[in-house]
Structures are given as structure tokens and as C-alpha cells.
Amino acid sequence: MGTLVGHVAPGAGFLLIGLWQLFSHIRLFLLRPSSYSAPVWFPVRGIRHLELILIIIGTTISILMELVIGPAKHQPFDDDGTIPSDHLHNFEHASISLALLLFAAVTIHLDRARAPMRDAVSQLVAAAAFAQQLLIFHLHSADHMGVEGQFHWLLQTVIAVTLATTLLGIPYPRSFVVSLVRSASLVFQGVWFIVMGVMLWTPKLIPKGCFLNLEEGHDVVRCRTHEALERAKSLVNLQFSWYLTGTVLFVVVFFLQMSKLYPEEPRYLPLVKGGGSDSDGRFSIGDDHDDEDDLEAAKSGFGHVVSGARPIEIER
């Protein structure tokens, strides 16, 4: 991952999934605000598990790039079978990709098996993946003190938000705010990965007083003086602030535009014969028996969804 492409490619992946999640959660909430319940993923017509399949494809390519295609010998081990120090970061990046691949594969299996509590289990697996991502970047074998380390330190704050909102999504599945922040954090992860790749490995964009130095097989930004290093870190902080502001503005504008395109659906709650205390023949309105089926319909369908639709029963 220690190259321009190695950061831009995964950044594009996070950005794509984040935008899809952002669009889908906002749309689902606008259509059915009173019955909104946040799914972990969203099916696509024609290819139900497309979102998860893309994650599997992307993470598989990432692992191959880190461990097979990228290394000069097309394998990351030393002659004696050990992991050389200049390939530690390859294994770290591949481990993050493996955790995300596991999440996607487990989620597909749970869905096909129609397992109970499958969304909660999938969220736990996703949380484990983001926890691993946070831990690896915190203990990264790459530079912690230089310009790249400052980019990584700020990235950890975004990953922490993604992790926290993923965990909060388990006890609070009906909180739109949790889903919105999680989706926005995925978008910002993608943006920051792309910014990191462009700013760290484009020679013309290296801060004044700093330069690219080849170390252990990949280029690292080094600064000639302590003053130049502190200036470069301050510039990274400013970029983070600007891109965060831009992302927040984008999310707000995106939400407002979508609210015009997707007004709340009218919900026709049919009269059904009640049971229990209403067994004397009175009618009750609605039935929450089919909440899960309604959620599946809302996730995958673009048409009108009516909750608890049943024929009207008239007692004579």
C-alpha cells in the first residue's frame, strides 16, 4: 500500500461503498421514517449480493497486490521462510483486507442461510474488521513520526468513528443518525486514503523543505529540518480539516437533494380483526408481524412498500 496506487485504489473502494451506503440509508429513511431499521448491507436487483461481492473482489485483489504481485520476487518471504522487515507493512495491509473479506463472506452466508440475528452478527464481524484496521494503523510498522505518520494518525480518528458507529448500530438499529455518521465516515475514509496517496507520492506536492527518500523498497517523505517537518504536519492537519468540512457539506447537500426525490411513502394500514383483548369483534389497526419482510422489501425494492398488508376482514 506504500505507493500512490496502493492508497488511491483502496480509497476508491471505501468511497464507492460509503456512497452506496449513504444513498441507501438516506433513501430508506426518507421513504419510511417511522419504521426505519438500518441493515448492514443493501441488496441490488438482479445481483442480490453485489455490494458484498465487490468487497470480496476488491479485498482479494488487494491481498494479491500486497503479497504476490507487488513484491519483486512475487512472494513476500525471505529465503529462509521468514518475513523480512521491508515486507511487514505488506502483511499488515493484507490482514486488513482479509478481515473485510471475511465480513463480506460471512454476511453472504448468513443471508443465504436465513440465520436469526444475521444483521447483528454481521455488524459484529464488521466491527471486528474495523477494530483490526484501527489497531494495525495504530501499531503500523511504517513511519509514525514523519509526514506519513501524521496522515495515519488522523486516519485512525476516522476509523474509530466507523468502529464506534458500527458497534452502536447493534443496540440502536433504528437510529438514522448512527447509520448516517457511519456511512459518512466510510466516505471520508475513502477521501482521506486518496488524499494520502496523492499528497505523499506526487513529487510536486511534497511540502517545501521535504523530499522523497527510498527506504526499505518504498518512497518515504523526509524533511531536512525540524521546522520543515512541523510545517508539513501542520499542512496535513489543515488538509484534514478542509476535507472533513467538505465531506460534511456534501452529506448535508446530498441529504437535502434526496429529500426532494424521495418523499415519504403513504402507508395504508388495513383493518384486521384483532385478537386477545379485542376478541369481542372489535377491529385493530396494523400488525407488526411482518417487520422483517417489510425491511427486505424496503431494502431491495424501489416501488411502493406497504407494511402489514392483509385483506380486510369484516365480521357479520
From TrEMBL:
Regions crossing the membrane: 12-31, 52-70, 90-108, 120-139, 151-172, 184-202, 240-258
Cell compartments where the protein resides: Membrane
Pfam families the UniProt entry points to: DUF716
InterPro entries: DUF716
Keywords, in A-Z order: Membrane, Transmembrane, Transmembrane helix
Keyword Metal-binding: no
Superkingdom in the source lineage: Eukaryota
Topology with respect to the bilayer: Multi-pass membrane protein
A cellular component annotation (GO) from this entry: membrane
Similarity annotation: Belongs to the TMEM45 family.
Record's protein name: Plant viral-response family protein
Origin species: Eleusine coracana subsp. coracana
Phylogenetic lineage: Eukaryota, Viridiplantae, Streptophyta, Embryophyta, Tracheophyta
